Amino acid sequence: MYQHLPVMSREVIELLTPIPQGTVVDATVGGGGHARLLLEARPDLRVLGIDRDDVAVAAARKNLVHFGDKVQIVQGGFENLATIVKENTEGNIMGILFDLGVSSPQLDRSERGFSYWGEAPLDMRMDSSQELTAQTVLNNYTESELSMIIAKNGEERFADRIASRIVANRPLQTTADLVSSVQEAIPARFRRSGGNPARRTFQAIRMEVNRELPSLSAGLDESVHLLSPGGRVLVLAYHSLEDRIVKDRFARWAGEREQTLPGLPVEPNPRRRVKVLTRRALRPRASETGSNRRARSARLRAAEKLTVPAGS
Predict the structure, then answer these.
(1) Which residues, 6+ apart, have CB-to-CB distance to 242 below 8 Å?
(2) Residue 106 has pLDDT above 90, yes or no
(3) Predicted confidence (pLDDT) at residue 257 exceeds the cutoff of 90
């Protein structure tokens, strides 16, 4: 059973409902929650659902089967977004939705290795057909490589100590081995607050296994080219690393004002490609965070492609 509550669904649907008729690309379709709600609100739209996770692809096909040919589901990643869209759609792309990070069903299936609770193989692959696993990363990367990954992807202050302990404890076989290594590395006074001390390290290793940040950057860059004028791109991010990438891309596409020399007038970028619809990231309502823990850290940003780029 693939049960996953779509995060900030009301806000997502409100932002996508006004778009012109065409196709919406749900680049992380999961169980199809956002896609279902969108098609119920806008029956004239078509949806191309994409996911790296073969389990999610199967679930989306099952959950959305009653929409018939209005929906097509394929397996793939952000880095191949343009190719997937061109091979599977015709006409205008009027919306693209990215819902980032790990899903509840992925966390709940302990055998996949995403969760730091319990004991499971060190897998962490969203695409089960790829070769690289968390076990490969943890047992084969150098100590300096592990430290850099844990510091960058996990924003972990004790990255050096954790990497050293991982290397000392090799070979690591299970998620419990990784949790134990992190606990040994972090001073006791810092383990007593801020949730599970292994959380940041698990995030960092998962992001390395799945190349999440490079894939996100590639997918965002492709999305602005794929969208037809008046189309919208929406991104749900769950931690600051993802959100910074999204915020930076939107700012650049929007040609936000830059001051090149002190004392000179501030001039707008003449090649503005989008209008940012969310000047500040939208956050989930209290009623949602109370019933869906995953929504608590969500940040939603949206932008609309301009009909004619400014300055063209």
Answers:
(1) 100, 101, 212, 213, 216, 235
(2) no
(3) no
How far from 288 is each of 104, 179, 201, 293, CA to CA, in Å?
15, 30, 27, 8
**CATH code, domain with 21:** 3.40.50.150
Per-residue pLDDT reduced to its tens digit, 209-237 = 999 999 999 999 999 999 999 999 999 99
Say if residue 205 is in the same domain as residue 216: no
Query: DSSP letter string over 250-302?
Result: HHHHTT--B--STTSPPB--TT--EEES-SS-B---HHHHHH-GGGGG-EEEE
Do 100 and 216 belong to one domain?
Answer: yes
- What is the value of pTM for the model shown? 0.91
- What value does the mean pLDDT take over residues 114-143? 95
Q: Is the pLDDT of residue 78 over 60?
A: yes
If 0-12 CB within 10 Å is exposed, 13-18 middle and 19+ buried, where does residue 213 land? middle
Range of the domain at 71: 9-105+212-305
Give backbone dihedrals phi and psi of 233, rounded to 5 degrees, phi first.
-115, 130
State the angle between helix axes of 81-88 and 212-226 in degrees (0 to 180), rounded to the nearest 10.
40
144 lies in some domain: yes
* Number of separate domains in the chain: 2
Please state the length of the chain. 312
Q: How far is CA 4 from the centre of its chain?
A: 15
Report how far residue 219's alpha carbon sits from residue 222's, in angstroms, rounded to the nearest whole number: 5
Element (H, E) at 9: helix 9-16
Are 215 and 28 in contact, with CB atoms under 8 Å apart? no
Asked whether the beta carbons of 291 and 309 are under 8 A apart, the reply is no
Identify the band that residue 3 occupies on the pLDDT scale cut at 50, 70 and 90. low
Mean pLDDT, residues 136-149: 99
H or E element: which one contains 136?
helix 134-140
Q: Name the phi and psi angles at 147, rounded to 5.
A: -60, -45
Where a domain ends, among 192, 209, 226? 209
